[in-house]
Write a structure and sequence with these properties.
Helices cover 30% and strands 15% of the residues. The protein is α+β, with helices and mostly antiparallel strands. The chain has a five-stranded mixed β-sheet, covered by helices on one side. It binds FE2/S2 (inorganic) cluster (2 copies).
Amino acid sequence: MMNDVALEFTLNGEPCSVTIDVRTTLLDLLREHLGLIGAKKGCDHGQCGACTVLLGGRRVNACLLLAVALQGADVTTIEGLADAETGELHRLQQAFIDHDAFQCGYCTPGQICSAVGMLAEVREGMPSFASEDLRASRFALDGPEIRERMSGNLCRCGAYVNIVAAVSDVAGEEGL
Ligand code: FES
Ligand code: FES
């Protein structure tokens, strides 16, 4: 069709080729065309974080990205976080289970992908609004830092206390 475009990118470590309408968002591509329904559609306009995935290791809202802009990109979704060979869960996935960090689970894939991206940002020395010294090269991930850095991910069930505990556990293991 006139509006269709061929797209090639890497999805969860595997090459992916698909022909889509140029108006398709990354979230709709994942959920409606590729059957990856881990990323959730909460608001569909960048407010809730339920659709968070990783683009080249950076967390992004999949509902705000046109898939056509992802030519050659590297996308990781919640389905790609566990070890592909052994099935062993990502440390953050396991920590969410250990800390009972969800109720309905709707926000959880986005929370976990966001936390993966957030820990990478901290390792790279990126400050947050809660950081006292913006020029510091290391930031201790205490409760306020984690809450601020994860504030783009809403949880209607209010599981925030346990989400912070889960993220804090993994941050502590990494010496952050
Ligand atoms: S569905 Fe994308 S931010 Fe809410
Ligand atoms: S666990 Fe239900 S919205 Fe977060």
